[in-house]
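Progress narrative, work stream C.
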Amino acid sequence: MMVPPNDSAGDTVPWNKGQWRTWAREHRATQPDHSVLVTAHLITFLREAGARRVLAYRALPGEPDVSALAHDFELLAPRARFRPTPRLTLHPWNTATEMSRFGALQPPADAPEVPLSDVDAVLLPGLAFDVRGVRLGYGGGFYDRLLPDFVGLTVGVIQGELVVPRLPADLHDCPVKWLATQDGMKRTQR
């Protein structure tokens, strides 16, 4: 397995995003499923924050599964759209019944939409996050197009072993404010 290089201070040195994605996929495949612990921390955090409507995600293999949150919150599921421009649309959780090209369940194209302005919190999956909240996604940029004007809570949901000191970031990246791992909730370092 690839091991991230360290600089003299022990911080990870940014590889390019492709190298980080390779490392994260390899590392994630060796980790146990912490979905129950992550979800328990999220329930407490979201309740204390007063969140009611939450944009979640349908988990891909290796991602923490947050579907149990549907018992406590009104969850929404995203749909990736590619025309006329790439973007995410938001829909009721239970409408996610068709397989996306990425391998996760998504709502069909004609599912009723919910505006982002009606959302209290957004939970973002990723291959890795850094302590600043920078997300290493899958390369589509969908969340970076969705979040620039969002004023609610943004939470990266990840296995703790995939939180690193520093990832490469582009100007359009939208770091999250919180990280949810099996060890609890952590405010990101801005």
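Work stream C, second folded protein:
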Amino acid sequence: MSLDASPAAPTFVERAQTLVLPALREAVRTLHPWQAEIAGYAFGWAGEGVPAAGGSVAGGGKGLRPALVLVCARGVGVRPEAAVPAAVAVELVHAFSLIHDDIIDGDERRRHRASVWKKYGVGPALLAGDGLLALAMRTLAAAPVSERATRHLSSSLMEIVHGQSDDVLFERRAWTGGEAVTMEEYARMAGSKSGALLACAAALGAALGGAADTVVERLAAMGRQLGIALQIVDDLLGIWGEQEVTGKPVLSDLRRGKKTLPVVAALTSGEAQAGRLAGLLADVPGGGREPEQDSLRAAVRLIEEAGGRRIAERRAVEHVETALGMAARVLDRDAVQELRAYAAYLVGRTR
């Protein structure tokens, strides 16, 4: 598996939307009208840049998490229809996290449009995010046999908040020296920040459908590996992605001092470029001055020359291969094949 290609989204992702989108829209309609309006914008159903044919589960996004819920549920014998509340809940949590992430990071653009807080203001965006989170819990709690699934989701939410907190605190730490973020700390952060939600997505439909605890646990472990890979790919796109494709400003992660995997890997590589990179990054938050664009671009070149990009790409593929090995031990053959296509898109995407 390689990060060079950018395959189309698997067909089962589109099939999942057919099941999930109506239920998601119905859930959002139960929010306060103002929150429902803002949520509709967040999902890409309203406002500028609305997709044709009424949008998708995630508007400008790809609906990857609901699709993962359904394919894993079906792969262990749960009817996809029974897992729809879990898929809706996971997508609501994802939307909540994106709204709050953009506020925390100060990102003014998402999916080629103004971010929710930029369009509506910070207060309304926070309220809409809170509404989506509460709606996720209510949606799941209202489903039959929901107690175990609700516990699983609430536990995942605690993990996500923990990982987000570490990610923010990492920005305040030095690039080098005793306070520098290590590769091990990065892995723990990614495993919570992004890994927890994909772990939840992989396991939640099966939990809701009554699968055995051991099956649910194995699916969660598999999903966590995919989530870490997703975070690494996001890190790569944050440095080398094209704004016209990603819909977000380039180099914003680096400008803010985020300790993404390519940077951490480059700084700890032992290569000669690592020292020069550390000098350039001294101007990035935590070091005093606002970095110039030329300095950031020079830092990007040094990150690549020091092996940061190569190491990050390899780690993403390793996590995906680990996930696929786990999947083969718990999912049926058809689901494993769909998951392989899902993983290829995950690591090869350009969004």
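The chain has one domain: 11-348. No further action is required on this item.
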